[in-house]
Records
---
Amino acid sequence: MTDDDKLIDDQSNVDEDELDRRIRELGLEESPSEQARAEGDKIDDEFESRLKALEDKAQAHRQVRNNQKREAERKQTSDRESARGLGVGLSIAYTIIGMPIVGLIIGWILDRGTESQTYKGLGVVVGMVLGIAAGLAILAKSNRQP
């Protein structure tokens, strides 16, 4: 019987540390438990690196989403301001064009009643003055509002 056989026969109840010591005595590089620990450490390191990569990817997607959200808000604000400016501009244009037309109609009615030609011209001039004044008032009001 060899020394190895004696070691095995002598103690059948041997704990893990004793087994590790005996395996090292036999000349093996690592015991099974050390190999298992090394393999577990390797798996843990791989898991940590994958988790870190996943976190980095999630952070990059959050950044992209936040940039898209800011761009959408900026565009919405710009569109809102453009629509408001368009509304004010059209109101001023309709006022400047409409008031002389209203003056012309009133002058035409007065001319028909009096059988003269003076009130049409006078109505147009008064309508232009009132239209420009109303247009400036609309512009001043729109500049005061936020």
---
Amino acid sequence: MGTPMVPLDNKAEAVIMGAGFQPGQEVFLLITDANGIKSDIEYALKPVPKANAAGTWSTTWSCGRYVKKKLVKEGAYVITVTDTKYEPLAHVPVTFYMAK
């Protein structure tokens, strides 16, 4: 899960986390943008997600570039968590809303 609501702002950030993974497992995060294009967002994640000894991971997505380029708009999106072969493992919802 993580930050379920993110303001549409050029400095937007979303905390994304997962549990129930194999210790040490590397994961990739993909989002399908407003144009229907699926892209890997690893370049904008800190730290790169990797499950700890308890099988959990957490990262922060600096998603302001997606807002600025209008790749995300107001509404709900699904982030797909995959293994290193891009096989889906889980899904994380995130909703963008108009900043006031």
---
Amino acid sequence: MLASGLGCGHSHLRYDYASEPDPRKQEYVIGPSDVLKISVWHNADLSVDTTVRPDGTITLPLIGDIRAAGRTSEQIRVELTQRLGAFIKDESAIATVAVTGINSYRFTVSGNVEHQGTFTSNHYVTVLEAITLAGGPNRFAAPEDTILTRTEGKRGRRRIPIDYPDLVNGTRPEEDLPLISGDTIYVP
């Protein structure tokens, strides 16, 4: 009976990869260090380029501090328009909010890769792209046992198994998940 298990290859744990969120399908959630361009129609003095501070806030003329981190640009735009309405009585209190610099998107690749560390990107990165950014598995790696660790709100912390060789050769494309800021990939 023991012999029947030999030579069968790597047995991969079953995981529901489709249940993982895809941040590319939602509006971007702003974080500290992101750069915003805020324009107020017909009011150049109220229009600013600003960086979200480490405490998650931005400061705007007339209005003062507004919480930006953890919100979308649309949520910020709605609050700005409402608050500006107290100062601008005509219909020109129309604000737009654009994210012009994404600096808060960070993920870590550690373990047996060529260049482990924390990486940033101005666009969403998948597991395969992240490991490539880290130079790929080194000669000591067991990449078929790679783990993506993710901590997310109500779902808590979870360990998602990744079979890197199968991902590379295209037999497990469902494992090439887009990373969420704060994710950690560990290549044993």
